[in-house]
């Protein structure tokens, strides 16, 4: 039975499953057939399976399709394909309705942060790989639909995207992108990437400012808002990127960082619990930043503790953690990497604000 207040999907129901055959170790289709197909059939769930052929295939498909045919859109891949689907839905004229289509995730990638987060939110013992896939398969069959926060991210060229997972700059973003070449080793790619990056640890210069979630003035909007969006809700907390941040924001005095990470789910990967306190619809971004001066050993210890989600309680003086509703990052380093949901985006000034409960997700 569904807990009180949690909507359950009607039966029989029909899913559109979008599967990226290249995700993770390139075995997503086999994994789906072996571990998920049978569970869905036994649960009486009908589905149409579409194998994505290239980048943006899923994005274009959900932008154009008649969504009334489907009770849910299910993504079997890493987090990158879900990022495409979320943005495809937000690009539609009927975005407000479209983004309420229940989404489901089946881990087929090497990171699988959202899948691991859903498993964690259900209070289950941590599992990885195929066990996580089976757990997510059962979650889909239960069909309990939760609300999901999305963050609106804006870059200097005026690009706007919607993100369900993270915004990263510095160490984490570098590891995410540099470790793509090790994707064949699966989730271990991040451990490998972390060790390689630790050997060439560097400092990232820039300015960071944020609107704390506990703003005593309450959820105030700014008077100098950015351009009104064509699609999606207005970013009422953000000033234009070429203007100063609103006066009541907190401006971080340090300008030398090792990493800046805003995460809105508990997990950053199957075995990295970056924000253990995070929930699907807590209406905040969990901002974690590490100031320059941290030793390699301390940083390694931090990542090892992150595997258990205990890193924020280690008392490391270089680590700061704050819940925010909006933030702005202005890198000074001429070159660098910024990722949104693990995907590379335009490098330069970037800002984001959380939009609580905008999307829907099948979770436990
Ligand atoms: N058939 C395909 N061939 C190549 N790329 C594809 C295909 N289908 C989707 N893509 C693209 O692959 C990218 C990576 O997908 P995704 O992040 O879901 O998997 P992954 O990279 O294996 O997972 P993870 O991020 O967990 O490592 C996405 O940007 C997606 O658009």
UniProtKB/TrEMBL annotation:
Keyword check for Metal-binding: no
Cofactor or coenzyme needed: Mg(2+)
Record field: compositional bias (Polar residues): 219-228
Gene Ontology MF terms: ATP binding; calmodulin binding; sphingosine kinase activity
UniProt keyword ATP-binding, yes or no: yes
Enzyme Commission designation: 2.7.1.91
Positions of the UniProt region annotated as Disordered: 212-239
Keywords tagged on the record: ATP-binding, Calmodulin-binding, Cell membrane, Cytoplasm, Endosome, Kinase, Lipid metabolism, Membrane, Nucleotide-binding, Nucleus, Phosphoprotein, Synapse, Transferase
Catalytic activity: L-seryl-[protein] + acetyl-CoA = O-acetyl-L-seryl-[protein] + CoA; a sphingoid base + ATP = a sphingoid 1-phosphate + ADP + H(+)
Localization (cell): Cell membrane; Cytoplasm; Endosome membrane; Nucleus
Every DAGKc domain range: 10-157
Pfam families linked to this entry: DAGK_cat (PF00781), YegS_C (PF19279)
Enzyme class label: transferase
Membrane topology, from the record: Peripheral membrane protein
GO biological process, one term: cellular response to growth factor stimulus
GO cellular component, one term: presynapse
Main function: Has serine acetyltransferase activity on PTGS2/COX2 in an acetyl-CoA dependent manner. The acetyltransferase activity increases in presence of the kinase substrate, sphingosine. During neuroinflammation, through PTGS2 acetylation, promotes neuronal secretion of specialized preresolving mediators (SPMs), especially 15-R-lipoxin A4, which results in an increase of phagocytic microglia.
Record text on subunit structure and interactions: Interacts with ACY1. Binds to calmodulin. Interacts with SPHKAP. Interacts with CIB1, the interaction occurs in a calcium-dependent manner. Interacts with TRAF2. Interacts with EEF1A1; the interaction enhances SPHK1 kinase activity.
Protein name (database record): Sphingosine kinase 1
Originating organism: Electrophorus electricus
Organism phylogeny: Eukaryota, Metazoa, Chordata, Craniata, Vertebrata
């Amino acid at each position: 039975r569904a807990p009180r207040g949690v909507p359950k999907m009607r039966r029989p129901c029909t899913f559109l499953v979008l599967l990226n055959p290249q995700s993770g170790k390139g075995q997503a289709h086999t994994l789906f057939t072996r571990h998920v197909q049978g569970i869905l059939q036994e649960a009486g769930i009908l589905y149409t399976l579409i194998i994505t052929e290239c980048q943006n295939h899923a994005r274009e498909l959900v932008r154009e399709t008649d969504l009334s045919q489907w009770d849910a859109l299910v993504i079997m891949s890493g987090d990158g394909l879900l990022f495409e689907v979320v943005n495809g839905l937000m690009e539609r004229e009927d975005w407000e309705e479209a983004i309420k289509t229940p989404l489901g995730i089946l881990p087929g990638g090497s990171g699988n942060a959202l899948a691991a987060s859903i498993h964690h939110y259900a209070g289950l013992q941590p599992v990885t790989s195929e066990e996580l896939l089976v757990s997510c398969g059962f979650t889909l069959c239960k069909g309990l639909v939760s609300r999901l926060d999305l963050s609106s991210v804006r870059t200097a060229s005026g690009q706007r995207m919607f993100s369900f997972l993270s915004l990263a700059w510095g160490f984490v973003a570098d590891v995410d992108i540099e470790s793509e070449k090790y994707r064949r080793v699966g989730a271990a790619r991040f451990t490998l990437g972390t060790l390689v990056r630790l050997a060439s640890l560097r400092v990232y210069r820039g300015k960071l400012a944020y609107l704390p979630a506990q703003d005593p003035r309450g959820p105030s909007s700014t008077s100098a808002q950015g351009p009104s969006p064509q699609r999606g809700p207005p970013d009422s907390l953000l000033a234009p990127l070429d203007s100063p941040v609103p006066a009541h924001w907190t401006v971080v005095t340090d300008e030398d960082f090792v990493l800046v990470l805003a995460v809105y789910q508990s997990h950053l990967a199957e075995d990295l619990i970056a924000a253990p306190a995070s929930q699907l619809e807590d209406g905040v971004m969990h901002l974690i930043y590490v100031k320059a001066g941290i030793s390699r050993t301390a940083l390694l210890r931090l990542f090892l503790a992150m595997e258990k989600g205990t890193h924020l309680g280690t008392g490391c003086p270089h680590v700061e953690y704050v819940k925010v509703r909006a933030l702005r990052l202005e890198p000074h380093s001429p070159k660098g990497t910024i990722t949104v949901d693990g995907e590379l985006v335009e490098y330069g000034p970037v800002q984001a604000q959380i939009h609580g409960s905008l999307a829907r997700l099948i979770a436990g």
